[in-house]
Amino acid sequence: MVISRLHINRIEKNLSLIQEFLTELKKLSLLSEDEFLSDKRNPAAAESYLRRSLETVFDIGRHILAKSYGFKELEYEKIALELGEKGIVDKEYSRILMKMAGYRNRLVHLYHEVTPKEIYDILTGHLPDIERFISETVGFIREYKKTEN
Fold first, then answer.
1. What is the C-alpha R_g of the chain?
2. 3-class secondary structure for the chain?
3. Is 0.85 topped by the overall pTM?
4. Among 112, 115, 127, 142, which residue carries the largest CB count within 10 Å?
5. CB 76, CB 94: distance < 8 Å
């Protein structure tokens, strides 16, 4: 059910933006934990790139759901759930997206509880979760383009 056409260029630009943020996050992930924690700017930069990556992930998801299924204002966890339910991303992966949505909310609303060590642990263990979103979205767009013609 297509409500209106997706803005593929906008989605692709946002995917590129996520990739730029990931490039910076990967550089920070190469630091040892001691190096990372020794400069206050490292956790601050990583937190900013991480938050912006997650917000862009859910902006893309919201756009796809709004244009393809008529969804209106959805919270991030609902976006994650519906992306899996509608087959836009793998259903199992949507559970990871739900955790990512919760973490984005933590970064924004409970920022005073987020520790530099926690940020480092995410950098060194969970960046592939964001990369997977890019991959699954590119696959969705590829299939979507086939139906446009």
1. 16
2. CCCCCCCHHHHHHHHHHHHHHHHHHHHHHCCCHHHHHHCCHHHHHHHHHHHHHHHHHHHHHHHHHHHHHCCCCCCHHHHHHHHHHCCCCCHHHHHHHHHHHHHHHHHHHCHHHCCHHHHHHHHHHCHHHHHHHHHHHHHHHHHHHHHHC
3. yes
4. 127
5. no
Averaged pLDDT, 80-93: 96
The tokens describing 122, both together, are 């995410």
At residue 94's C-alpha, the angle toward residues 113 and 71, to 5°, is 100
Q: Given the structure tokens 């530099």, which residue do they identify? A: 116
Is 57 within 8 Å of 130 (Cβ atoms)?
yes
Domains in the chain with CATH codes: 8-148 (1.20.120.580)
Q: Token pair of 29, please?
A: 């992930």
- Among the residue ranges 50-54, 111-115, 122-126, the one predicted with the least confidence is 111-115
Cα angle for residues 28, 113, 94 (degrees, 5° grid): 70
